[in-house]
Specification:
With 173 residues, this protein is mostly helical. It has helices spanning 2-20, 52-160. It starts with a helix and ends in a 13-residue tail after the last helix. Helix 1 (2-20) runs parallel beside helix 2.
Length: 173
C-alpha cells in the first residue's frame, strides 16, 4: 500500500510540474515543416506497482517540451528572418531614394548646362551676324570709294580726252 501512495504522489507532482512549466497546450500559431509525432495514448496503469503510467506521463511531458521548444525556435527563426528582410527593404528604399535624388540633381545640372550652352550659341550666332554685317558694310563702303575713284578718273579722262591705259591691257595694246 505504501508503493501505491508513492506512485500516486509522483503522478500528482508530475501533473503540477506540467502545469507550472508554462507550456501552452493550445495549438501552435505557425506550423511549417515536420512536427514531432504525437505521444502514445495515455492509460491509467498506476495501480498494482506498474510504472508504465508514470513513463507515459514523463514521455508526454518530454514530447510537449520538445514540441514547445521546436515551435519557439521556428517562431524565433521566422521573426529573425522577417526583421532582416524588413531591414533590407528599408535599406533598398533608402538607396533608391538617394539614387533618384542624385538623378534628379544630374538632370537639373544638365538642364542648367544646356541653357548656358544655348545662350553661348545664341551669343556666337549674334557675333557672327554682327561680324557679317560689319564686313558687308565695309564692302559697301569700299564699293562706294571705288565708284568715286572711277567717276573721278572718268571725269579726268573726259577732260583730257585720253584713254585709260588699263582698258587696253587685256586686249594687248
Amino acid at each position: 500500500m505504501g508503493e501505491e501512495r508513492d506512485e500516486s504522489n509522483k503522478h500528482v507532482t508530475l501533473e503540477t510540474e506540467l502545469k507550472s512549466s508554462h507550456i501552452s497546450t493550445s495549438p501552435p500559431e505557425h506550423e511549417s515543416g515536420p512536427v514531432a509525432t504525437p505521444p502514445p495514448e495515455k492509460t491509467n496503469c498506476l495501480r498494482g506497482g506498474d510504472h508504465v503510467g508514470l513513463e507515459i506521463v514523463v514521455t508526454e511531458k518530454r514530447m510537449a517540451l520538445i514540441k514547445a521548444w521546436e515551435e519557439n525556435e521556428k517562431t524565433r527563426a521566422d521573426n529573425k528572418a522577417y526583421t532582416k528582410i524588413s531591414a533590407i527593404g528599408a535599406w533598398e528604399n533608402t538607396k533608391r531614394a538617394e539614387i533618384e535624388a542624385d538623378l534628379k540633381q544630374i538632370e537639373e545640372d544638365i538642364e542648367i548646362e544646356k541653357a548656358k550652352q544655348r545662350e553661348k550659341m545664341k551669343n556666337r550666332m549674334a557675333a557672327v551676324h554682327k561680324e557679317a554685317e560689319e564686313k558687308r558694310a565695309a564692302i559697301i563702303a569700299k564699293k562706294g570709294q571705288d565708284l568715286i575713284k572711277v567717276e573721278e578718273a572718268a571725269a579726268k579722262f573726259h577732260a583730257t580726252g585720253t584713254l585709260p591705259s588699263r582698258l587696253f591691257k587685256c586686249f594687248g595694246y
